[in-house]
Amino acid sequence: MSALPSGFIRTQDVLHEQLSGQRVRELELQYGNEELLYGLGVLGLSGPFSRVTPWELEDEHGVRRINASGYAAMPFGEMPPAITAFMHEFLTHNRAMGLPQQSSSPWRAALEANLVRLLARELPSHADSQVFFCSSGTEAIEGALKFAKAYRPRAKYAISFGSAYHGKTLGSLSLTPNPEYQDIFRPLVPGAVTSPYGDLDALKRVIRRLGPDTIYAVVVEPIQGEGGVNIPPAGFLSGLGEICRRHGIPVIADEIQTGLGRTGHWFESAAQGLDPDLITLAKPLGAGMTAVGATIVRAPIYKTMLGGLSSKRHSNTFGGGALAMAVGLKSLEYLIDNDLPTRSRELGEIGLSRLQALHRRFPQLLEAVRGQGLLLALQFRPMVGLPLPAMLREIVFEATAILALRELHLGGVMANLSLSSKRTVRLTPALDMPADVFATLMDRVEAFAQTHPNSRDLLLRTPPQVTTRLAAFAATKPKKRTPSDG
Ligand SMILES: Cc1ncc(COP(=O)(O)O)c(C=O)c1O
């Protein structure tokens, strides 16, 4: 046996929880994304958390929280028994190759066929569509952009929408119009144009101004998730589809967050009358256990990029790997067997009406609530009501949402910040969360609102040492941190 590097951590030590919470935080601060962990540490949210049930997590002190976080990538909660039992079976019995890059694979074949058949049931024009697998949402978007560009090679523009979120690799980042994420990386991929979300006339004007033949893709989220759960006006998506079809512009529906049941439908774009040419999927396919991304593409577009001798033009090492495909297959099967889109719609209706009641009771805390299925948003009234310069206003929005996130945590609810909407906190519980757990989750959100009927209370109830540290964190340049800082 060769010598281990000093301090090497054994798998068995991690598996048997030999690393204390304090040690985990120290290692993360020293070797990982230190600033993010530090910020979460100041808020008391950095964990590590352990699973109690698929829906409940506890910290090292045994304090429990219902998990409505996970950025919509935990469709069945933490380590769902149906998936882990199948993974045991897979690991015991599977004989198919692990990474079948240059050969066919039964797991990949089955998932390709199932995804296309599921889509074609909703949108029959996709009966002969084809799938390309990858390992994240942003990579699925990169693939979609390349497919569309290869199909219209002379076109130079891709249109996305205000407040969109498509990921953070360079292509998808170029279509995520958020200066906070984009600015330092300029120049980005050229030709990205932004049109206001939900405004069909504005889109028509942009297409007319650029010239339809110069556009290789319109990329749209059927409901914007990271943008704060923005539901477009009726007719926007179907109208968008009609304009693009008239001009032959490929439409990419980014269903990474909305797809496969989260919003109460298998494909939210189809439910809103859009028949896109490319569809990206990711989050729920991996069942919270592994990474699976997919780009589903109409055959003529697929074949242009990956036809004949060009079939290696787009590739990756891990996409289509046996474990990822097997988990993806099981995830899809579980969603179908339990009709989770319907369940998401039903639970979501209860959740949204409870949030609407809170909005009516506590307008000084909640500026708005939104939701569809189990994609629910609370938009907070800024803590400071005075007119402020734009930059300060952004800081106040963000601070309000961050303090709300902290208070929700303390009240036993893990929630998500929204990456492209500073004032919004989202709830994305598991689609199969039992009704009584979901009711407790909503009771806790209500208790949180009762304790903070006015958003100013968020500030007043936060211990001064937390606000001081947060302010110092926001105002100082990154430096080496220690756990005691957090
Ligand atoms: C709509 C949408 N597209 C793309 C992405 C990027 O996915 P990933 O984080 O897996 O790269 C996300 C992630 O939140 C998303 O919500």
Automatic annotation (TrEMBL):
Question: Does the keyword Transferase feature in the UniProt annotation?
Answer: yes
Which cofactor does the UniProt annotation name? pyridoxal 5'-phosphate
A Pfam family cross-referenced in the UniProt record is Aminotran_3
In terms of PROSITE patterns, this protein maps to: AA_TRANSFER_CLASS_3
Q: Which GO terms describe its molecular function?
A: transaminase activity
What the entry lists under CDD domains is as follows: OAT_like (cd00610)
UniProt keyword terms in alphabetical order = Aminotransferase, Pyridoxal phosphate, Transferase
Q: Does the keyword Acyltransferase apply?
A: no
Record's PANTHER family? ACETYLORNITHINE AMINOTRANSFERASE, MITOCHONDRIAL, AMINOTRANSFERASE CLASS III
Q: Which family does the UniProt entry place this protein in?
A: Belongs to the class-III pyridoxal-phosphate-dependent aminotransferase family.
Q: What is this protein called?
A: Aspartate aminotransferase family protein
Record organism? Deinococcus rufus
